[in-house]
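Q: PLP-dependent aminotransferase family protein, please. Structure only.
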Amino acid sequence: MEKTIMLPPIIFKEGQALYDQLYTHIRDEITSGSIPPGSKLPSIRKLSTQLNISKTTVEHAYGQLLAEGYTVSREKSGIYVEKIDTSFFRGIQHEDDAGSPIAPPDTGVKYDFHYSRINHDSFPLKDFERAQKWAFSQFEHFQYGDHFGYAPLRRMLSVYLRNTRGVQSNPEQIIIGSGTRYLISLLVHLLDLTTEEVGYENPGFDGVREYLKWAGVPIAPIQVDEDGISLEKLTHINPKVVYTTPAHQFPTGAIMPIKRRVELLQWANEQSAYIFEDDFDGEFRYSGRPIPSLQSLDKQERVIYLGSFSKALTPALRISFMVLPPHLLKRLQRNERSIGQTSSTIMQAALYHFINEGFWHRHLNRVRNEYVKRYYLLHTELQRGFPENSKVIATDAGFHMLLKLPGMNEDQIVDHALKRGVKVYPTAAYWEGNEKAPRDTILLGFGGLNERDLSAGIAILRDVVKELKA
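A: Structure for PLP-dependent aminotransferase family protein:
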């Protein structure tokens, strides 16, 4: 008769299932070599008596060891340790040995002026909870859903975009996905952009630009002037696709006037080129009406309109959308089975209910009032106490503005401010080939700060600039 081994002692801890602790203990003794291959483990009854735990607990622990192949059961004989090369496990740390969860690093940042941050206090938590509760109550929302997005939300977006941005579409043309970069990835495949040069605003939004480069898409930087992307520079290159932010150019804030818009559309028509119109913060214009979309002027199906709920609600929602021209929609529909819906159906349904019940318009009116106050407060704060030759660059829209400080180095300002708990951002990152970028301009977003913190952060920045100037 084979001798049954005695297991090394185990001390059970509170807060974790006993069977899980027992399984982990035996597994680690096996992988460390303390229990040799071929050893017979104690019977379930004997071990439960020895450890003063239930037989069910031992059965669960043994069952997990059997399922993972650490042990083998021999009929009418018992449970034995499988033959495993234990040298393989040296240096491996199991997830339950890894200690406490990773905590976010303490950066010491008290005032973060990032352009994409929103103020948590502005989020309509109770209303969105009601919308989520409704979404969870509907059985059909627990399925995969439409490849192109939740149909009621697409119908609602079609009407909303027509009324607010002049976008001409039917619901089928609207494709929903988890972020603008995902939608751009669909367009890369749809238009086979790895073989075509994409014209890109320079400076411009680095997130989409870096994704395109990562996807193997050749980038052609197109200079930006006070009216947006330069047509003169664009016609020298004549790419098959151009990415632009006409309603509020990022990061300069330039608004493309109607003359430039018409010229851009004429160029696209003549070249059979496509325009990616990224309307990333179109709801937030603080004087006058929102600027109509470029797509609203398009009669030749050359514009692909992109939008998102990241600024108006939260980037954590991960719901963006694009409006495809009909002929491109047909091309995408032929490949529908290759496309998975990346945005949660339940969250799309919750957003639909949130809009349908009137919560969206109430929220939008409220946050516009909040952001316009912060916009003008930041503008006022930047007008006083900084060097006389400094220049505030802003256009009554969006969530950021630029501060140009001639004769100063933006990296130096950023570093010194960070040491004082204030995080501001250099603009060189938004330039392709940033050796040509100006080095004296910082970007300040205001969406994630309340008015008190905004003023406090700028007061510290003001001191930093004075110290560096001295």
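A: Brief note, in case it's useful. The radius of gyration is 30 Å.
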